[in-house]
Amino acid sequence: MNTLDLQKIKDDAVEWALTHGVAFKESSYSAVHTPFTLTPTPIRRETYKLLQNLAKILSKLIYSVSENHDFLYDAIYPIKAGNPFFSALLNMHQQIHSSSSTAPRLPLLIMRSDFMDDVHDGFKLIEFNGIAAGMGPFGQRTHELHQYIQRQWSTTYSEWSHQAKGILVENHAIEGISAALARATFRIKQEFEDPGPARFLMIVQEHENNVFDQHLLELALQQKGIETHRRTFQELHNQLRTGDKNRLILNGVGPLDTVYLRAGYQYSDYEAASLNEKECCQALMATRVLIEQHRVAVNATVAQQLATSKRVQMLLSHLRLDELVAFGLKPEEVNTIKMVLGEMLPVNPHTINIVKESPSDSWVLKNQGEGGGHCLFGADIQLKLAKLDPLQYQSWSFMRRLHPAPRSVPSLVVRKGELYQITDLVSELGIFSVQIDNYAASAEPCFAGYLIRSKSAESTEGGVHSGQGVLDSLVFSD
């Protein structure tokens, strides 16, 4: 394949991506396509089926953990002293659940479980994502882009994918996630016998540039007959009130059926200098508490955010079979997830010494942050530990570092309109699952699509939005 032909394919793929909303907002009037691969990553059918099942079991576990408020309090309380943000989250959690009666909100868990394929141990869980578990729509669009390339540029696809006979792995994340949101939305609407339009509110960050992924989801909801609205926490301040039977009302809009958070996982989402608060962020955090004190479907609840934290992940990795069964799992389900719960350790003088004496590529140091930039590797681990106050230790954890095998052949990726060849592409696979409640068999967690992000093995930051990652999709290798 000559260079001119590759440039034509690359330009066509970029235009396809922009046409289909696979982009980041660059300014108030312009956008740039998100980075992506030109060909998909192979996976065995048996492995993919196993990961789907694992994601559903993990969703069932996290839902149960998120509704066990005593367990969450005991899990998070030790990190309050060293983590002001999680201290604030725990205070919000206590306000929501301070009454003897159950908080009226309808919990809607939309979770992404991220896995990586270690060269020796196979797939292991990297982390849970329960708030801002986004980019599902981008995952589906990348699958569709690879379908397009396979049809339109079959010779090049065959040459570069080395999987020309493999079947692309279907990805219906937009439909899967929007269907869950729609079910919850119409459930609340029907409870109130409300003749007006079903309404969905997305809470977003100010000056957000990852808006197209969000709009793709909103569009799917609109096509289901749901009216959608977008607000920041500051825009919601003093704009919410209580209607009959604990109905949540947005001034100027009307009753709300579902509130979906794409913000709230960092302090800056709650900052509002204009409010002249005595303590940072209290007013806008009170807005989030207020929402959960009403009969409205919510993703993610504060409890779900705590339950999907690195702290809880570390604690769950140490629980015995009987302790995990107590969260509603069957023994065989516990045995299944034990295969992928990676080794994690709390940070204390003993484990610091263990890590110090291990090879430099053996461990990762993680804090409680969401998104990119919250993991430290190699020599940076000891440098950070030397700066930490011991009170902050419990806000951090060690995770056994994974070493995925790169693709067996070079891969082409496109970033900012330029074509690059990467010889050591590795991938992180996120599986979406949804669960509205846990009262009936029909409420079992459902698979809701996937997101695969790939990067050079030399890069330690794989986020598409915040690092060196690119959007990818899957193809069956057998």
Describe this structure in words.
It is a single chain. With 478 residues, the protein is α+β, with helices and mostly antiparallel strands. The protein has one domain. It is built from 16 helices and 24 strands. Strands 5-14-13-8-9 form a 5-stranded parallel beta sheet. Strands 7-6-21-22-23 form a 5-stranded antiparallel beta sheet. The longest helix is centred in the first third of the chain and has 22 residues, at 45-66.
What are the key terms here?
five-stranded parallel β-sheet, 478 residues, ATP binding, single chain, glutathione binding, 16 helices, metal-binding, PreATP-grasp_dom_sf, metal ion binding, alpha+beta, five-stranded antiparallel β-sheet
List the helices and strands and how they pair.
Blueprint: H1 3-19, E1 23-27, E2 30-33, E3 36-37, E4 41-43, H2 45-66, H3 69-76, H4 84-96, E5 106-107, E6 109-118, E7 122-129, H5 136-152, H6 154-161, H7 173-191, E8 198-203, H8 212-223, E9 226-231, H9 233-236, E10 240-242, E11 248-250, E12 254-255, E13 258-261, H10 282-292, E14 297-299, H11 302-307, H12 310-316, H13 321-325, H14 331-338, E15 344-346, H15 349-357, E16 363-366, E17 375-377, H16 379-387, E18 397-400, E19 411-415, E20 418-422, E21 425-435, E22 446-456, E23 470-472, E24 474-476
Parallel strand pairs: 4-24, 5-14, 8-9, 8-13, 13-14
Antiparallel strand pairs: 1-2, 3-19, 6-7, 6-21, 10-11, 11-12, 15-18, 16-17, 16-18, 19-20, 21-22, 22-23
Task: Put the structure in a nutshell.
This protein has 478 residues and is of the alpha+beta class. It has helices at 3-19, 45-66, 69-76, 84-96, 136-152, 154-161, 173-191, 212-223, 233-236, 282-292, 302-307, 310-316, 321-325, 331-338, 349-357, 379-387; strands at 23-27, 30-33, 36-37, 41-43, 106-107, 109-118, 122-129, 198-203, 226-231, 240-242, 248-250, 254-255, 258-261, 297-299, 344-346, 363-366, 375-377, 397-400, 411-415, 418-422, 425-435, 446-456, 470-472, 474-476. The strands form seven sheets. Strands 5-14-13-8-9 form a five-stranded parallel β-sheet.
